[in-house]
Amino acid sequence: MLMRTDPFRELDRLAQQFFSGPGTWSRPTSMPMDAYRAGDEFVVEFDLPGVPADAIELDVERNVLTVKAERRPNRRTDEVEMQVSERPLGVFSRQLFLGDTLDAEHIRADYDSGVLTLRIPIAEKAKPRRIAIGNADTGRKEIDA
Fold first, then answer.
1. What gap in Å lies between CA 77 and CA 69, rounded to an integer?
2. pTM of the prediction?
3. What is the distance between the alpha carbons of residues 119 and 109, in angstroms, rounded to a whole number?
4. For 86-117, what is each residue's pLDDT tens digit?
5. Do 122 and 107 contact (CB within 8 A), yes or no?
6. CATH classification at residue 125
7. What gap in Å lies between CA 58 and CA 67, rounded to an integer?
8. Mean per-residue pLDDT of the chain
9. Which of 63-67, 81-85, 93-97, 116-120 has the highest mean pLDDT?
10. What is the largest distance, in Å, between two alpha-carbon atoms of the chain?
11. Quick one: which of 98, 100, 90 has its CA closest to 31?
12. Which of 12, 14, 61, 104 has the most other CB atoms within 10 Å of its CB?
């Protein structure tokens, strides 16, 4: 269904945590994601707390789905003296390579309470179907494929 393409994501995250000490800039980690099949659709959920809906972009080119979101500061940084700053700001991006069994033309997206939910239908050609088997003795019989 969904193809994973970044085997070094966890290693990259650990290296960022190890090498970025207090006061140093580090690239924000990618957005956490859950993906599962529910009936005739594939569901992907992204955690994007603090990101307004108008700061989220979804693009599909060929079978590559790109999710891009930007978390902006909710205050003017020149008017405050930060004491603790642990919430990452900036642009978050994630690419998913969709398999041929998914219908990328009919993706639905909803955003509620900081969770972006994508629903991708399973393509008709990938759904189970019955195949008729011919037999000289008993005639035609259908079986599940």
1. 20
2. 0.67
3. 6
4. 788 889 899 999 988 899 899 999 999 999 99
5. no
6. 2.60.40.790
7. 5
8. 80
9. 116-120
10. 87
11. 90
12. 104
Task: Tell me, rounded to whole angstroms, the distance of Cα 46 from its chain centroid.
Answer: 6
Residue 137 lies in a domain: yes
Q: pLDDT tens-digit profile of 35-64?
A: 999 999 999 999 999 899 999 999 999 889
Parent domain of 92? 30-73+88-144
φ/ψ of 138, rounded to 5, equals -110, -5
Token couple for 87: 């919430």
Cα distances (angstroms) measured from residue 55 to each of 7, 27, 88, 91, 105 = 28, 18, 15, 9, 22
In the numeric block, the tokens 């909710």 are attached to 74
- Average confidence (pLDDT) over 21-27: 47
- Report which of 39, 26, 35 is spatially closest to residue 4, judged by C-alpha positions: 35
When divided into structural domains, the chain yields a total of: 1
